[in-house]
Recover the amino acids of this structure.
C-alpha cells in the first residue's frame, strides 16, 4: 500500500501532465447537440413484453432545452426524423448542429483514405446528412474520434434524463404500459416537466433562432427493386412480401425510420413495418394465399411457413387438422386462411376459438358457415382472479414470531401457523 502511495505522490510531483477538460461558455441560439442512447436498462414493458429501444436525444447547449424520440436503430432516417421533430417542436433552428461520429451522419473513413479520395472537411459528412443541414440552414460540427466528452452536453443529459425517467417510473408504480403511444406520452410529459424550469434561458434562445422552412424535408431513402418470383422484395438485408400481381415488376421502395412504402406507377400500393436488424422476413398471407390454395403441396416445406399463422389459434387449428387428416390437413388449413383473407381475420379467429372448444371435428366448411352466418359468436370467457388477502400473511408472521419468542425462553410451543 505504501509503494502505491509513493508512486501516486511521485506522479503528482514529477509525472507527466494529464488531459485537461475545458468547460465551454455557450451562447443562446448557437448550438444544438444530438445523439442516441439505449433505454433497455430502464426495464420498460409494453403489454408484458420487454420494450428494447433507443432514444434520439436533442439538446440546446445554452438553455439545456431537450427533446427526444423513440427509435430502434442509429440510422439516418431515425436521426433525420428525430432532429426534425425537435426543431419543429422548438419552433426555430439554431446556428449549428453537433453530433458524434455516427455512420448515419459522418463518413468514418481513416484519415489516409480521406486524403486519397480527396474528402474535404465538408464532404466528411454523408450526402444525405449534408442535404438535411443545408435545408435547415444549419452548420455541421462533429466530435473527434473517441472523444465523447466533446459532445458533453447531450452525453450529460443522457444520464440525467434516464435518471429522471427511472424516478418517474418508480413514482408511477409500474414500468408496464398498455401501448407504445402511452409510453411516448409519458416521456413527452416528462420532457415538458424538465423544460419548464428552463423557460428564461429558452426565451433567450428563441430570440436568436433562425426561422423554420415552410415544410419538413422528406428524408426517406428511395430504392428501385424488382419483385422476385416468390412475390418478395429484398430490402436492407430483410425480405418483405408484396402482392403476387407485382411479380417481375420494378417498384420504388421509400425507406423511413420505422416503415417502408412500396410505390408502383406513381401510386402507393403497400405500407410495411420496417424490420429491425438483418436476415428477417415478413410475409403477408394475403399476398400469396390464392396461389397457395392452387399449389397446396408447397405449403408444408415453405421457407416462410411460420409467417402464415396470423395467431396462435391458427397454428393450433393447423395442428388439429393435421391430426385429423395427415394427408389433407394442410389443404383444409389453407382454405381457412383464404377465408380470413376474403372475409375477416378476426372473425375467423373467433370462429376457430369456438370450434376448437367443441368436441366435434374441425373443418373449413364449419368455419365458413360460422363466419358468414348471422349468429353471434360468444365472447371469450373472462378470467377473474380474486385479490390476495394480505391479513393471512400478517397472521403467519405473527404466529412465527410468537413461536420464536417461546422457543427462546425454553417454553414448548406448536410450530404450526394458524392461517
Amino acid at each position: 500500500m505504501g509503494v502505491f502511495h509513493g508512486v501516486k505522490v511521485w506522479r503528482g510531483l514529477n509525472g507527466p501532465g494529464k488531459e485537461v477538460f475545458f468547460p465551454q461558455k455557450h451562447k443562446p441560439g448557437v448550438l444544438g447537440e444530438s445523439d442516441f442512447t439505449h433505454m433497455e436498462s430502464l426495464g420498460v414493458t409494453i403489454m408484458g413484453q420487454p420494450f428494447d429501444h433507443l432514444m434520439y436525444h436533442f439538446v440546446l447547449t445554452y438553455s439545456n432545452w431537450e427533446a427526444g424520440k423513440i427509435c430502434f436503430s442509429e440510422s439516418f432516417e431515425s436521426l433525420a426524423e428525430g432532429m426534425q421533430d425537435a426543431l419543429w417542436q422548438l419552433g426555430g433552428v439554431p446556428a449549428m448542429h453537433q453530433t458524434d461520429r455516427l455512420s448515419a451522419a459522418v463518413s468514418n473513413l481513416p484519415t489516409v483514405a480521406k486524403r486519397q479520395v480527396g474528402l474535404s472537411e465538408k464532404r466528411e459528412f454523408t450526402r444525405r446528412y449534408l442535404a438535411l443541414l443545408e435545408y435547415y440552414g444549419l452548420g455541421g460540427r462533429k466530435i473527434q474520434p473517441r472523444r465523447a466528452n466533446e459532445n458533453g452536453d447531450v452525453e450529460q443529459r443522457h444520464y440525467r434524463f434516464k435518471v429522471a425517467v427511472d424516478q418517474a417510473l418508480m413514482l408511477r408504480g409500474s414500468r408496464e404500459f398498455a401501448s407504445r403511444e402511452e409510453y411516448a406520452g409519458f416521456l413527452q410529459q416528462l420532457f415538458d416537466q424538465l423544460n419548464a424550469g428552463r423557460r428564461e434561458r429558452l426565451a433567450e434562445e428563441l430570440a436568436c433562432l433562425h426561422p423554420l422552412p415552410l415544410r419538413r424535408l422528406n428524408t426517406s431513402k428511395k430504392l428501385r427493386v424488382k419483385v422476385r418470383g416468390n412475390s418478395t422484395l429484398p430490402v436492407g438485408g430483410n425480405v418483405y412480401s408484396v402482392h403476387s400481381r407485382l411479380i417481375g415488376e420494378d417498384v420504388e421502395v421509400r425507406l423511413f425510420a420505422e416503415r417502408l412504402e412500396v410505390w408502383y406507377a406513381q401510386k402507393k400500393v403497400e405500407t410495411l413495418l420496417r424490420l429491425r436488424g438483418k436476415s428477417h422476413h415478413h410475409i403477408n398471407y394475403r399476398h400469396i394465399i390464392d396461389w397457395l390454395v392452387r399449389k397446396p403441396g408447397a405449403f408444408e416445406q415453405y421457407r416462410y411457413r411460420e409467417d402464415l399463422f396470423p395467431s396462435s389459434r391458427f397454428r393450433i387449428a393447423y395442428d388439429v387438422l393435421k391430426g385429423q387428416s395427415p394427408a389433407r390437413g394442410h389443404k383444409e388449413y389453407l382454405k381457412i386462411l383464404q377465408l380470413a383473407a376474403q372475409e375477416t381475420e378476426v372473425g375467423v379467429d373467433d370462429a376457430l376459438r369456438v370450434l376448437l372448444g367443441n368436441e366435434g371435428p374441425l373443418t373449413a366448411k364449419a368455419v365458413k358457415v360460422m363466419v358468414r352466418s348471422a349468429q353471434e359468436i360468444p365472447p371469450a370467457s373472462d378470467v377473474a382472479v380474486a385479490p390476495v388477502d394480505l391479513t393471512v400473511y400478517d397472521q403467519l408472521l405473527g404466529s412465527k414470531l410468537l413461536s420464536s419468542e417461546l422457543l427462546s425462553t425454553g417454553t414448548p410451543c406448536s410450530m404450526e401457523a394458524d392461517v
Remarks:
- DSSP finds 13 helices and 15 strands in the chain.
- Confidence is low (pLDDT under 50) at residues 108-123, 145-151, 413-419.
